[in-house]
Amino acid sequence: MAIMRPGRMGAAMKAACRLSALAVAGCLLAGAARAAEPVSDELRSALKPSTADPTLAPDLLLPAQDMAWWRDAKFGVFVHWGLYAIPAKGEWHMFNDKVPAAEYAKLAQQFNPQHYDPDAWAALAQDAGARYMVLTARHHDGFSLFASRASHGQFDAPHSAAKRDLVAPWVQAVRRQGLRVGLYYSPLDWRFPAYFHPKDMPENASAFKQQTYGQVEELMREYGRIDILWYDGGWLAHQGTDADAAWFWEPDKLNRLVRRHQPKVVINPRSGWQGDFDVEEGDAPIKGPIRARPWEKTFSINGAWGYVPEGQVKSTDFLVTMLVDAIVRNGNLLANVGPDADGVIPPKQSETLRGVGRWLQRYGQAVYGTRPGPLQPVDGVHGMTQRGDRCYLFVTRWPAGELQLPMLPRQVTGVRNLSGDEVAWRDGPHGLTVSVPAPQRGLPVTVLELRTSARP
Ligand code: GLC
Description:
Blueprint: H1 8-17, H2 21-32, H3 41-47, H4 64-73, E1 75-79, H5 93-96, H6 101-105, H7 118-127, E2 132-138, H8 167-176, E3 180-185, H9 193-196, H10 202-221, E4 228-231, H11 246-249, H12 251-261, E5 266-267, E6 278-281, E7 295-300, H13 316-327, E8 331-337, H14 347-363, E9 371-372, E10 382-387, E11 390-395, E12 403-405, E13 411-417, E14 424-428, E15 431-435, E16 446-453
Parallel strand pairs: 1-2, 1-8, 2-3, 3-4, 4-5, 6-7, 7-8
Antiparallel strand pairs: 9-10, 10-11, 11-16, 12-15, 13-16, 14-15
Helix pairs in contact: 1-2, 7-8, 7-14, 10-12, 13-14
The chain binds alpha-D-glucopyranose.
């Protein structure tokens, strides 16, 4: 069985390259040629490769049994929320529009989300069929949604017009819904000049690093059990990779501190340490064979991660297709919403999520708690999951005649069409053949359940 282990550059990048002009710039950036037009740092951030050193602190990796819940969960909801919701230009506004830190800080006095209702957010994630949520406790702008003594300049929610910790009630709400709790934290903070010149400004650099260690410890110590720690921006000056900045962040030391407080927290790879799973960012199609390491596809349902008025909001069918393409390749999907400055998740994003929930209600048995395979997926056509003696075949594009598959390791003893009534099938010496009449197919994907037993 061919198994591949792509970095962020691998699959994500190549797929992205085919997609948009922006991505083309990213491909050039990746070294195929010199980019003729300037590449934004935001794009560079989205496309930067993860080349973490696998020999760095492998003892910190969670054992397989502690990753099982995450691999079973399949679907999570990401929330990007912070001061950037006020100007409504996305979470990179401060940097992209060159807003001086002192000017940007004034937004804190306007940040008073009257309709912030974390129970409503958690209920929406539950309706969406998500099994976990991840919230931006602090993004690159440096503003903490939580009460943070370690925050440089006390740039946190209790010192804003909100006058309270906004993470603590969210953690409780997510738990009340029976979902797992994930916190996003950005080691990088644009307010520190040392982020851009780490070697030239030792004092500022040391304060910068101390803030990250202090805040990560606060998050890991003061909010009860945390299930996922989702770093983003463990690099320096928007250059190189997270791993290139490991000399500065010492991610092994940082994550050792994390494990002291949260021995079982699942950690993503963006601190410069390899992490417990890989991340593929962006909405490029998912391709290739089953991946050896657990991984997560993440993109925003709306245009930006942080709040911008709703424009081309992704459809439920788009998310379902991404979810299926991820799970048949050993991945999860983390789909992002950007609540507005008042704390409300906008209606179209909510509707897309509820649609995924309706789909999962019908097909959840083929999703949750499964593992990919036994057959390798074929890009844009089909893929499989399995649990016990059941296999699930997801067909996104039917051939003109029958769909011909290789022989499964186990004998197929029955096939049920979960998307309709009829299905014809044959398990012969040359493999498995299935066909479903067009009106009996599902959109955007037909799901078939295969009963199997050991081959005689
Ligand atoms: C990127 C961006 C960031 C976003 C993140 C989510 O790296 O810098 O704004 O939070 O991706 O994956």
